[in-house]
Amino acid sequence: MATLDSAPASAGRLRVAMPSVAERVAQELRRQLAEGALIPGARLTESTIAEDLGVSRNTVREAFAELASERLVVRHPNRGVFVASLGAEDIHDVYTVRRFIEVSAMRGGGSPEDVAAVRAAVEEGKRAAAAGDDEAGGTANQHFHGAIVAMARSPRLNTVMAQVLAEMRLFFHKATADALFYQRYLPDNEAICEALEAGDPDRAADLLLAYLDRSEDNLAAVHGE
């Protein structure tokens, strides 16, 4: 059975260009954060994660250090490592990053394949709404914003966005006490996607900017309560 610690023997000369095992563990944990599988305040256990991912505890410890530097987890002496609980003061900073990354990527437009990935995320959100599954709707919304940044075809921006999406899901956990939280954004996602499909990335970017402004205001209100 292949694990994250496994690597083909023939890959030796390419290994320098590949992410380390600890980086891949950190990537997996970011994905779980972004998709809502790990909630704020949850305790993360080295031994459990090491067993689940087929890696050593030292590797998990390295991944925790990377995530702690990104403020996605916190280490409490004599207690362990916990998923971070972000506060209202972090919201504006994260949305500032989102405006720069997402709106710029949108203005650049994308290939038909890129736009199809945005459309696929919109349709994923519609299916989740029809099923009354707000958690799946949240994941679809994350996929939508990830697909927007992916249009820039920049691995570095994708890496930054992976961290941002993980932080966003931590914010959203409190907001989703409202069961219709994600469904309210579906018409915006649809309008943005339609503008892209019509070949008008500037209009799509303007719609996205207004969307992010409203989203920041909504989250600030929730976390300011």
Automatic annotation (TrEMBL):
Keywords: DNA-binding, Transcription, Transcription regulation
Gene Ontology terms, MF aspect: DNA binding; DNA-binding transcription factor activity
Tagged with keyword Hydrolase: no
Species per Swiss-Prot/TrEMBL record: Pseudarthrobacter equi
Record Pfam families: FCD, GntR
UniProt keyword Ribonucleoprotein, yes or no: no
UniProt superkingdom: Bacteria
Domain HTH gntR-type residue range list: 19-86
Name of the protein this chain belongs to: DNA-binding transcriptional regulator, GntR family
